[in-house]
Structures are given as C-alpha cells and as structure tokens.
Amino acid sequence: DRCNFVRMRDVLVALDVHALPLPHGLGDGGVLERVDALATEQIVRMMRGGGGPGGTGADLSHEAHRHSLGVFVSQLLAQMDERVRGENTTALRLYSAHDTTLLPLLMILGAFEPPHNRWP
C-alpha cells in the first residue's frame, strides 16, 4: 500500500494553521515540509498520468484534464478575450478554488514546475 501524502498533508496543514499540536514526532525535523514535498510530487505524478495516491492506480490523463479543468479554462479565456475586445468592462473577477485545483491550473499555464515550486 502506498501512502496518500495528499491526505496526510491536508491533515497536518490544518492542524498547523490552527495552532493545534502535530502528532508526536511530526512537529520537528522538517517532517511537515517533507510531507508537503511528497504530496506535491504525488499530485504532479497524477496530473502527468503516473498513478494516483493510495495505490489506486488512478491517472488523470489528457482527457481527464479536459473534463476537470477544461470548462473553467475555456470560460477564463473567453472572459479574457471579451475584456481585450472591450465587450466586458469587469475589472476584477474572483474565483474560489481548492488547492488541488490551483496546482493543475498552474501546470496547464506553465507556471508550476516541480521540484522548484511548492504546493500553492
């Protein structure tokens, strides 16, 4: 069985940001940073078609990318085009997304390249 570092990271980060104690032995020695790096690697591997966490073997292929982010990216690009053509005067748009949405979006835009970048 493979460890699901993505889920582990979510739990550890939630504890950390709420100033709750981390499980014994995980609060020192850079364990949180290492779990963060491993979770990032796991998501990137899934996005590139190398298998999902937890030994599921799930891949997010090109087709899955299109279904998971394609509609949003298409909408985003259409809104940008409208703004450039002067058809839409909205100055600012806010979007809400989970971090597991941001990382693939950054990859699609070419703005995230591990191991140099960290989880958003």
Task: Map the helices and strands.
Blueprint: H1 5-17, H2 31-47, H3 62-84, H4 99-108
Describe this structure in words.
InterPro entries: His_Pase_clade-2 (IPR000560), His_PPase_superfam (IPR029033). By secondary structure, the chain is mainly α. It has one domain. Helix content is 52%, strand content 0%. It contains four helices and no strands. It is elongated. The two termini are 27 Å apart.
Could you list some keywords that capture this structure?
about 120 residues; mainly alpha; 4 helices
The average pLDDT score comes to 79
In angstroms, what separates the terminal alpha carbons?
27 Å
Q: Given the helix and strand composition, which structural class is it?
A: mainly alpha
Number of strands: 0
N-to-C order of helices and strands: HHHH
The residue fraction in helices comes out at 40-55%
Gyration radius (Cα, Å) is 17 Å
Q: How many helical elements?
A: 4
- The number of distinct structural domains comes to 1
Given as residue ranges, the uncertain stretches (5+ residues, pLDDT < 50) are none
Pfam families: His_Phos_2 (PF00328)
Protein name: Acid phosphatase
InterPro entries: His_Pase_clade-2 (IPR000560), His_PPase_superfam (IPR029033)
Organism: Diacronema lutheri (Unicellular marine alga)
Summarize the structure.
InterPro entries: His_Pase_clade-2 (IPR000560), His_PPase_superfam (IPR029033). Helices cover 52% and strands 0% of the residues.
